[in-house]
Write a structure and sequence with these properties.
Distance between the termini of chain B: 64 Å
Largest interface: A-B, 31 and 30 residues
CATH superfamily of the largest domain in chain B: MetI-like
CATH class of the largest domain in chain A: Alpha Beta
Strand content of chain A: 5-15%
CATH architecture of the largest domain in chain A: 3-Layer(aba) Sandwich
Structural class of chain B: mainly alpha
Number of helices of chain B: 15
Largest sheet of chain B: 2 strands, antiparallel
CATH architecture of the largest domain in chain B: Orthogonal Bundle
Largest sheet of chain A: 7 strands, mixed
Structural class of chain A: alpha/beta
CATH topology of the largest domain in chain B: MetI-like fold
Radius of gyration of chain A: 26 Å
Shape of chain A: globular
CATH topology of the largest domain in chain A: D-Maltodextrin-Binding Protein, domain 2
Helix content of chain B: over 70%
Order of helices and strands of chain B: HHEEHHHHHHHHHHHHH
CATH superfamily of the largest domain in chain A: Periplasmic binding protein-like II
Number of strands of chain B: 2
Number of domains of chain A: 2
Number of strands of chain A: 12
Helix content of chain A: 40-55%
Distance between the termini of chain A: 78 Å
Oligomer: heterodimer
Chain lengths: 464, 309
């Protein structure tokens, strides 16, 4: 009996072999195929990859429920990664491993690269032949500029638009007797008006303005404006408004043009010369967000992305009345618009079903949920008609003048750029460090020409 | 019966030695498989990639020695080498000194010593993300604990993570947070020193300093050497904390662009796997040469007790 109960070496080896085989077998269907077990007969499963916090996650899930009602033969599996940068790394790895999803979010700076690399399905004909999306004037006019390649082919559809705007504390403006900027042409601020008003809105602990003698820039009680350079969507509008451009017609970085450098210098001057804006580091060190600072009056005006309206809105700014307006301009009003894309991945085994899903994402149901919470701006013209506006403008989220932003300002002054292949490397290696140097006080002329030269070397090497 | 005899004759008979050999290989197979799949194959693949341009989305294309040529004209490689060497040069000796000092402090027996040992060791097992968040706040210019201490002694507020001058010192300081791991190895070594050595030294009239210099340090030299080699390799491979604190940028202005962060960024952000593989080989050769120098010039000064016997 004792002998028979002994766990022999042979038994151990047998069990090890069986366990290893079982593990190997169970490991095989990991990943996408795992969901195959849950597939229903006649239902095609497609994977949708993307990123987003809770709001985006909930929006996508709600869209999937609605889509699956309309298309009971298609099931969408949502694979969410919290951060865009993490997601793109994951997507690249998936491409390399041959396990890419069927459909995906695509960042605006990688769209051209992936389209050129043949990873994104050409959906031009499907759009043109679509009853809804193919209608003349369905999208904002800028849509074609960002989506179409040199041959006019589309490899994705923009998810939405976002752009820079101002968020201001109306009580602070009232107290200073200054009318804040709005979105209509006669409500916009040119640079001189902006500087003059910014001086009046900024006060140190002794109540002095920067133009007063004895102003103490180290002890500022209230800054007029925070215009961060770190997120490049925010300063680009100023560059365009000065007659400059971010990416030129040859697909090269043009931040070394006199106009672009002058605009960047003027933005830096707000901090170091005019003392009307805090250093970025000072903002971080204060431990307060721009929302909190606008709310408590430490900041008269924040310039941030339109997406920030989802957390910086009349419902969250409770100690003040929040207003919104367009960013100040240098020579002519301009604002930069962008957003991520939705694309069908070329390797999909279900191109028709994948297209149906991407198409659905470009219809009002999906976009409305994000527009209502202030995260997105409309990208479809039907959403900026009198009737369309009522569908998404939400009291408590959108200030009273917000319709002007999408009906007047952006259609007229919004500019877009196609971000060339190689820009990601050029940016992370040279442009971002140059911007960091500018943020830290280095004059623009000292860093930007060399950074642009090196950035364009990388981009040029991709074009040949 | 006939069937049984056939099966018996067809069975492969293993000798006890063969059986032991097979079992031995099975037991070391996790390492062998790990070595093959996670080191050898990737290493060979990276040799192949060194001569390719591959953005992960299109098939690799042969570019000859382009990636290697780029090494000699890449200002960022110079910058990342500078940052990594500076960090290593300060963090490794300081970490070892602090680890050794702490180990001596806690190498005694009194009531509650276990609490001190635990407290000194805990920081080194705190997850990297928690460490990053904690120290990002500690280095806050206005409200950070580090600056509060400095200003309490009349010093200036230092923009640790915003200044290109102070970013590396900040990460060196931060690295001391993990001195507990070298401390625990030093402590194990200290506890292995027989009391008889100290007693003999005391009889010869040695004081604490003489005992440390002539007994502890020589006997501990293999442990110090071990910690030095591990420390050098670890410092050259620093990545997680700097990635977390600088959001992967290696900022400000590439001041903290450590070599591994640069490799990672080149591969997965800049989509240039070929050049990333090439820089990886630079790191490999640096570590190989550095280890060779350490073994050549310091290894011979290490005292091994068993050799003395």
């Amino acid at each position: 009996m004792k002998q028979s109960s002994k766990f022999s070496r042979r038994n151990f080896l047998k069990m090890s072999g069986v366990s290893a085989a079982a593990l190997a077998a169970s490991g095989l269907p990991l990943g996408r195929s795992a969901s195959a077990a849950f597939r229903l007969q006649g239902v095609t499963n497609i994977v949708f990859g993307g990123w987003g916090a809770t709001a985006e996650d909930e929006g996508v899930q709600a869209a999937i429920v609605e889509f699956e009602k309309q298309f009971p033969n298609i099931a969408v599996e949502w694979q969410n990664t919290p951060l865009a940068s993490d997601y793109m790394q994951q997507l690249l790895t998936n491409f390399a491993a041959g396990t890419a999803p069927d459909t995906s979010f695509i960042t605006s700076d990688s769209y051209e690269t992936l389209a050129k690399g043949g990873q994104l399905m050409d959906i031009t004909d499907r759009i043109m032949n679509d009853e809804l999306l193919g209608q003349e004037g369905y999208f904002f006019p800028q849509e074609a500029v960002r989506c179409a390649d040199d041959n006019g082919r589309w490899h994705g559809i923009g998810s939405t638009w976002v752009a820079a705007q101002t968020y201001h504390n109306l009580a602070v403006f009232d107290e200073a007797g200054i009318t804040p900027p709005g979105f209509k042409d006669d409500e916009l601020w040119d640079w001189d008006t902006f500087l003059e008003n910014a001086d009046q809105l900024t006060i140190d602990v002794n109540g002095r303005h920067p133009s007063d003698s004895g102003f103490d820039p180290d002890n500022v009680q209230r800054w007029a404006v925070d215009w961060p350079l770190g997120n490049f969507v925010l300063p680009v509008g100023a560059i365009y408004s000065n007659g400059g451009t971010w990416i030129d017609e040859n697909g090269l970085v043009a931040l070394d043009s006199p106009e672009a450098m002058e605009a960047l210098q003027k933005l830096q001057d707000l901090v170091y010369r005019h003392h009307v804006a805090p250093r970025t580091a000072a903002m971080a060190d204060l431990g307060m967000t721009n929302t909190q600072m606008v709310d408590n009056g430490r900041l008269a005006m924040a310039i941030d992305g339109s997406w920030a309206l989802s957390w910086m809105n009349p419902s969250t700014v409770t100690h003040a009345t929040l207003g919104t307006g367009a960013i100040p301009y240098l020579k002519e009003p301009k604002d930069y618009m962008q957003a991520h894309f939705h694309s069908v991945i070329n390797s999909t085994a279900h191109p028709d079903e994948a297209w149906e899903w991407v198409r659905f994402l470009a219809t009002p149901f999906y976009t409305l949920s994000f527009m209502k919470i202030g995260l997105w701006l409309p990208s479809q013209m039907s959403q900026v008609t009198e009737e369309g506006l009522q569908e998404w403008l939400t009291p408590g989220i959108h200030p009273d003048n917000y319709a002007d932003f999408v009906t007047e300002y952006l259609p007229k002054h919004g500019v877009v750029a196609r971000i060339p292949d190689g820009y990601i490397e050029a940016d992370s290696n040279y442009i971002t460090p140059a911007i960091q140097a500018i943020v830290n006080g280095t004059p623009v002329e000292e860093v930007m020409p060399e950074a642009v030269r090196q950035a364009n070397e990388i981009i040029s090497s991709m074009q040949h | 019966m006939a069937t049984s005899s056939i099966s018996k004759t067809s069975k492969i008979r293993l000798t006890p030695t063969m059986r032991r050999t097979i079992v031995g290989y099975i037991f070391i197979s996790p390492f062998i498989l790990g070595f093959i799949f996670w080191f050898l194959i990737p290493a060979l693949a990276s040799v192949y990639l060194t001569f390719q341009r591959w953005n992960l989305i299109s098939p690799p294309t042969f570019v000859g020695f382009d990636n290697i040529e780029r090494l000699f004209s890449d200002p960022l490689l110079g910058q990342s080498l500078k940052a990594t060497i500076l960090f290593t040069a300060f963090s490794v000796p300081l970490n070892m000194a602090l680890g050794f000092f702490l180990a001596i402090l806690i190498n005694r027996t009194f009531r509650g010593i276990a609490i001190f040992r635990t407290l000194f060791y805990i920081p080194s097992i705190v997850p990297a993300i928690a460490t990053a968040l904690l120290w990002a706040w500690m280095f806050n210019t206005e409200f950070g604990l580090v600056n509060i201490l400095i200003t309490a002694f009349g010093g200036p507020k230092i923009p640790w993570l915003q200044s290109t001058t102070w970013a590396i010192p900040a990460f060196v300081l931060l690295s001391l947070w993990g001195a507990g791991s070298s401390m625990i190895i030093f402590l194990a070594g200290l506890q292995g020193i027989p009391d008889i050595y100290y007693e003999a030294a005391e009889i010869d009239g040695a004081g604490p300093w003489a005992k440390l210099r002539h007994v502890t340090l020589p006997v501990m030299s293999p442990i110090i050497f071990f910690n030095l080699v591990l420390g050098l390799i670890g410092a050259f491979q620093s990545f997680t904390i700097v990635y977390l604190i600088t959001s992967g940028t290696g900022g400000p202005e590439n001041a903290t662009l450590f070599l591994v962060l640069y490799i990672y960024r080149t591969a997965f952000r800049n989509m240039n796997m070929g050049y990333a593989a090439t820089v990886s080989w630079v790191l490999f050769f640096i570590l190989m040469i550095l280890s060779g120098i350490v073994f050549r010039y310091l290894g011979r000064r290490v005292y091994y007790e068993h050799e003395a016997e």
